[in-house]
Amino acid sequence: MLKNLFLCFFVVTVLLLTLGGRETVQSASPKEAEFYKGKVVDGIVPYKTGGGYDNWVRAISLFFGKYAGGATLVTKNMPGAGGLVGTNRLYTADPNGLTIGILNASGLMQAVLTETSGVKFDLLKFTWLGRLTSDQKIICVSPKSKFKTIEAMKQSTKPVKFGAPGLGSSMFLEAALVAQAMGIRIDLITGYETSEEVDLAIIRGEIDAATGSFASKIDTVKNGDMALVAQFGNVKEADLAKTPNLGDFPGLSSDSKQLLDLLVAMGESGRPMAGPPGMHPERSKFLQETLKKIVQDPEFLQLAKKQQMDVIYLPPEELFKIIGKGVSLSPSLKNRLKEILAKYQPKK
Amino acid sequence: MTEGFLQGITNVFNPTMLLYMFLGVIIGLIVGILPGLGGVATLAILLPVVYGMNPAFALAFLIAIHATVYQGGAITSILFGIPGETATTATILDGYPMAQQGKAGRALANSQVASMLGGIFGAVILAAFIPIAKPIVLAFGSPELFMMAVMGISFVAFLSQRSTIKAFITGALGLILSLVGFHHGTGALRYTGGIIYFYEGVKMVPVFMGLFAIPEVIEMAVGGETIAKVAGSDVRWGDIIQGIKDVFHHWWLMIRCSTIGTIIGIIPGVGGVVAQFMCYGHAKQTSKRAEEFGKGCEEGVIATQSGDNAKEGGALLTTLAFGIPGSSAMVIILGAMMVLGIKPGPEMITKHLDILWTLVITLIMSNVIASLIGLMAARPLARLTFAKGTILIPVILLLVILGAYGVSNDITDVFMAFAFGALGYLMKIYDYSRVTFTISFVLGDYVERYFLISLTSLGPGFLLVSPIAVILLILTILGLAGAPLKRLLKKSRNRRQKQGV
């Protein structure tokens, strides 16, 4: 309580110093706007303060009141178990429309598909509010590396060393699937604490390559500390025009194509916002509209751009379709996925 | 170079800039004093707010907050034995006993001056080494980190107060606790009992809160006394001045610990929590009055605080050189720089030299301002240790609960804090070292993590690949063998002298 009071005090002080007053916009559904007036909405972030997911919710909270009848969105960080703690928490929250959250959809799809213990939710039952962004994924190496192309990696007699944080991390799954689909022999070095540490390990030459989101590597690549090998995904980045796309490689088998499709689908689910299952229907609709208006607000877009956050909005219905397709894989593909992951998993 | 420097000076000594810096320092101190509310969280909360500000002001504001939380954290650690910041936990080890001896004023002065000088040291290193930052940052890979962690754990041998066996037991217990959760290499879950709370391991903050703060509360409640167990309630300026002098008297220790802090700051991934314990271990290992550590030795306070503040310069070095953040706070500072249109990397030296100098001078200035405020407040603050337990206990308990809860908004953390409080109390009355427990708890994870990475990426001979790792190995062996060797030498010398007689 004391902490919150204290925080409010400082946020208000600095807000006054910098921003001045903020207006609210007349809403299309006055009844719901009336409900949200003066209410506090919890925005669960299943990760620590200061990360990418946290940034998104904090940026949205600045504009939330403007479109949601003057309600306040308060960021609540609930880290743990690679995002599962916060996600479970959102799933079991009161569906009264006063608790929403941001989710790592591709990570959660991975957790569901690989039957990770700790998953206590049905991904299809969340009340989806819309996707904020999705990442274009890339494979990068050191500029001094001898593996500057997929061909070079394929022809190597020694396994190519790919790095990743944990086994449950998206980088692990991506590296395993890419290696399998493209026919590259790899060693997966896991255990790095963060993806930044993986980057430095590449630059240092401790490992050869890693996958990652382009947005997080753009500066390192532009500084010449890292080189791009290939990309996979559906986001068109101008900076990546010359980087080959894995899906375009000739002679891919149907199995390889299927694996790459799965990777693309998982990447596409990106970072959505959602509420607990069975959330109050009118309020859900109101929040979906609110989110849509926020990501279209020019001021918000400017802020996001400055922070290198690309808004790639997707409405809830389409998001649901992507996630539905992803988690309801055919049993054979699901088994194949397990097989591949087991292959790269270090011996216990 | 000079032009950039002058521009930096002009930037910093602008009245508005100084105002923001001052505001930042005040926020930093308060955040530091309040347990559970960390510098990182504060930066993240304030980040959206600084978007509209002038870039240089905004950055100075954020850096000032971040650079000074340890000065605030030390105050809580020394006065109440509660870690104000996770990174000032080790300051409790000698700071709190000093407060109990009625020397709170002196300990506070030790901490403030050591922090300030450590902060300045880190900033100077940042300025001096930025042109050659890359090779320095790249020199520390997994084998080097593995050896550093091993070296840290070897300090358990010196940190035991009386019984080596007891130190061994607590050290082992800490190691076991550090293994709880997902195994990073294989993904196996260990010692979680199927409880999801433990999947990512035992969290540090509730453990520190419980282990260090609660036993003191219990003791105070049982004894019904004040924190300071001496008669009289006067804190004289003389104590504060003595505290300032102490730091200069131990200047060489301060420099060494600042160096350790800076190096740890440079290495991404190694949390700020580690620096303090490495510094404390090093200080005790090399001190002539090692037996006084843990009983209120000013060297303990100086070592931990100088290391804490120095590491921020190191962390900025990595962040600015590569654009790869060296710590979670640097993730936010980097985010702020991007928002403000400043690109880290080589451009920092070619195009933004003025910004670099602004950062360096801000780092120095905010450390100086924070410590001056800390010193001026030291006398009234130190008087708190003479306040009645009946008044202090509820306040301290409230701070412990808020501190444990605030980290991840999880009530389970509060229960954990109390569970570890019980363990800490038992450890205290049966004389089991809480430091040896903590140091292996903090470092155990790093030892295992970097051992596995080194082994899988570089093969079984990984130590031989790296000269730094070999040097660290030799230092560890010398450190461990040092005391017995000295004893042997002494014996043989005595024998020879006797024979000579």
Short descriptors:
heterodimer, A: 348 residues, alpha/beta, D-Maltodextrin-Binding Protein, domain 2, 2 domains, five-stranded mixed β-sheet, three-stranded antiparallel β-sheet, 14 helices, globular, B: 501 residues, mainly alpha, two-stranded antiparallel sheet, 23 helices, 1% strand
Describe the protein's architecture and organization.
The complex is a heterodimer of chains A (348) and B (501). Chain A contains 14 helices and 10 strands. Chain A has a 5-stranded mixed β-sheet with strand order 2-1-3-10-4. In chain A, strands 8-5-9 form a 3-stranded antiparallel β-sheet. A two-stranded parallel ribbon of chain A has the order 6-7. In chain A, helix 3 (52-67) links the parallel strand 1 and strand 2. Chain A is α/β, with parallel strands linked by helices and 348 residues long. The longest helix of chain A has 17 residues, at 2-18. Chain A folds into 2 domains: 33-134 and 270-328, D-Maltodextrin-Binding Protein, domain 2, CATH 3.40.190.150; 137-267, Periplasmic binding protein-like II (D-Maltodextrin-Binding Protein, domain 2, 3-Layer(aba) Sandwich). Chain B has 501 residues and is mainly α. Helices cover 75% and strands 1% of the residues of chain B. In chain B, strands 1-2 form a two-stranded antiparallel sheet. Chain B is globular and about 65 Å long. The model of chain B has no long low-confidence stretch (mean pLDDT 87). The chains are: A alpha/beta (348), B mainly alpha (501). At the A-B interface, helix 1, helix 3, strand 2, helix 4 and strand 7 of A face helix 3, helix 16, helix 19 and helix 21 of B.
